[in-house]
Amino acid sequence: MMTLPCTFTPGFHRENEIAKIKYNVLGSTGLQVSNLSLGTGGFSYFYGEYSLEECKLVVEEALKSGINYIDTGPWYGHGVSEQILGKCLKNIPRSAYYIATKVGRYEADPKRMFDFSAEKTRKSVENSLKVLGVDYIDIMQVHDVEFAPSLDIVLNETLPTLQEFVKEGKIRYIGVTGYPNSVLKEVIEKSNKINCVLSYTRLTMIDQSLKQFIPFYKSKNVGIINASVHGMGLLTNSGPPAWHPAPESLKIICANAAKFCKENDVELGRLAVYFALQEEGPSTILCGTNTRDLLRKNVDVVKNGLNAKELKIYGEVRERFFNNLQNTHWEGIELEKFRSESFVFSTNQK
């Protein structure tokens, strides 16, 4: 007999449709999250074209397929993702999903992009509750903590402010996100308020650096979300957006892998999802999508795996393109760019 997740909602879900989804406990939160979760950064112009109606259909189909964890944040589309998602959730039972959003990263302007202060954090939480149309948020994450001018402000202002909302019942649990796992580890070492981490693009076909941190996270009972297993578009046949921060050498290798997949009528993105599902440690893999077609491809891999042809190409892609990669990441590139742009902006304002 199948054990149903806590988010199973009679009248909305059908037992047979969620039978092949696996649910894992997310660290100390105790939340039973689906092994595939829905990222909504694409519910904005960040990843190209989108439509409200299609986003609504994506959310409904994702939840009915058994996905129960949805991630958003005020940074995506600079508020657009949260607004669109709020509209998508209007007719969805609140019991059917967990929702996570973020504080700390906001606007395109380098001068106002990051703000980890207590005042801004408080306003951001209240705004997210209003825009999303919910009474509480399951997980509130401090977004990209490596960009904070100092971790002191995160530890002394951001996290204590979020803890106040936890006491009020408006937030259930607290998480942190970032690209360098070393920084996430440092925050956890210095705070006892962290329930989960979102690590993005660090456990994929091209970069497995998250693995060395998993034992530490597990020792602290911190849940692990493996986000952007498509490498923010690198590991797809269509390729990454123009703003992708990866070095050109890595983009070329991934483009060659995508070309090989297209020549063999295989979608690289499906191979990327399959890879992530084989890795132990994370409770869920977070995949962004704003179309039902892409959603269905991801869900199909979760429920049915790869076919014989895809498995063959999967092995060849790893062997030909990824197994001997020298440069697998872009750590520090975004941070350096942000600091230089902030400096130029500040200089121009004088």
Automatic annotation (TrEMBL):
Q: Which Pfam families match?
A: Aldo_ket_red
A single Gene Ontology CC term? cytosol
Record GO terms (molecular function) = L-galactose dehydrogenase activity
Identify the InterPro entries for this entry.
AKR (IPR020471), LGALDH-like (IPR044479), NAD(P)_OxRdtase_dom_sf (IPR036812), NADP_OxRdtase_dom (IPR023210)
Indicate the segments forming the NADP-dependent oxidoreductase domain, all copies.
36-314
- Output the superkingdom of the source species: Eukaryota
Known PANTHER family for this protein?
GH17980P-RELATED
Q: What is this protein called?
A: NADP-dependent oxidoreductase domain-containing protein
This chain's source organism reads: Henosepilachna vigintioctopunctata
Upper classification of the source organism reads: Eukaryota, Metazoa, Ecdysozoa, Arthropoda, Hexapoda
